[in-house]
Amino acid sequence: MERIVVVGAGHMGSVVVRGLLDGMPQVEVVIVEPSAERRATLDSRAEAVAAYEPRPDDLLVLAIPPQAFDSFADGLPHGACAETIVVSIMAGVRLETLASALGTGRVLRAMPNLASRVGQSMTVLCPGEQVPAAGVDRAKAALSVIGKVLVVQDESLLDAATAVAGSGPALVAYLAQSFTDFARGAGFTPDDALLLTTQVLRGTADVLAEPAVTPQSLYRQASTPNGTTAEGIATLREHRVGESVRTALEATTERARELAG
Ligand SMILES: NC(=O)c1ccc[n+]([C@@H]2O[C@H](COP(=O)([O-])OP(=O)(O)OC[C@H]3O[C@@H](n4cnc5c(N)ncnc54)[C@H](OP(=O)(O)O)[C@@H]3O)[C@@H](O)[C@H]2O)c1
Questions:
Q1: Which domain holds residue 45?
Q2: 234 and 125, same structural domain?
């Protein structure tokens, strides 16, 4: 039976484990979590262990904080991961660092986002050069339980992916706050203001996912000359909102680059 081992039962680890248990029932799922107290709270369908005991054909998912990685890698027997496919979701830990600490080139980096908790992550996955195609497929299938997965070959794209997809939900939520604030100010209850905003976000995302629709085609189509939407778009342009968002994404990308060293 295929075995997937998730190391770290925090926010992301728990979400991945739940997704695997629900979405890949044919797979044996193991969680590595040193805290006995936390192990006792985990889903009983998965085996919870205090330390990782490697098996060559494991798919290993590292969901620990980046600062815990060195001690995790140091604790493994020499060569233990040589044949293992290792997927790291740790922000900012480069493929080279993973490979050298784990003694294997069969490593992949993934950047999921917080929408993983509702099965709607946009996860960007970058395999190291030595990962066989079957290993990429296994990693992609495992991460698909938390949402969509885009595979890229160029690791430098992960910094921008961290900004657009990793931080994306929080950045969009910041903008959404202005919608709810405005609706509340106009007299809607907080619940109704949130309903208006979330349904607009969901509906817009669904329309954008239709064939041949782009953000630009959507807002142009909605902007009849001298109409209400055109007035709003013109005001956004006047206040250079597009440029502000681009600058924020550049700053986020730069921070991701700095943190990865
Ligand atoms: N949260 C997000 O939206 C998000 C998005 C993209 C990437 N990530 C990445 O995902 C990783 C996990 O993030 P998180 O938000 O889930 O953090 P978290 O909630 O702090 O969870 C980390 C978990 O790892 C455990 N842990 C620490 N050292 C360990 C070890 N040696 N062996 C096994 N377990 C160990 C911690 O246990 P203790 O608490 O007992 O120390 C904790 O349960 C991070 O590297 C982060 O960069 C997170």
A1: 3-158
A2: no
**Residue 12 C-alpha to ligand 1 middle, in angstroms?**
7
Strands (E) located in the chain? 3-7, 28-32, 47-49, 59-62, 85-88, 107-111, 121-127, 147-151
Using most ligand atoms within 8 A of CB, pick from 7, 11, 125 the residue to mutate for ligand 1.
Answer: 11
Q: Which residues line ligand 1 (CB under 6 A)?
A: 7-13, 32-35, 63-66, 68, 71-72, 89-91, 111-114, 166
- Output the domain CATH number for residue 246: 1.10.3730.10
7-39 residue pLDDT tens: 999 999 999 999 999 999 999 999 999 999 989
Q: What is the pLDDT of residue 86?
A: 98
Query: Is 65 one of the annotated binding-site residues?
Result: yes
Q: Are residues 151 and 213 in the same domain?
A: no
- With 90 as the cut, is the pLDDT of residue 260 above it? no
Ligand 1 atom with least separation from CA of 112: 6
**What average pLDDT is seen over the chain?**
96
What pLDDT sits at residue 109?
A: 98
Does residue 163 sit within a domain? no
Domain limit, last residue, from 158, 179, 201: 158
Considering 124, 158, 192, which residue would you say is the last residue of a domain? 158
What's residue 261's pLDDT? 77
Phi and psi angles of residue 85, each rounded to the nearest 5 degrees, phi first: -90, 120
Please give the distance, rounded to the nearest whole angstrom, from the Cα atom of residue 10 to the centre of ligand 1.
5
Beta strands 121-127 and 107-111, pairing class = antiparallel
CA-CA distance, 13 to 41, in Å (whole number)? 13
- Distance in Å, CA 57 to ligand 1 centroid: 23
**Which percentage of the chain shows pLDDT scores above 90?**
96
77 & 128 share domain: yes
Give how many domains the chain has, as a whole number: 2
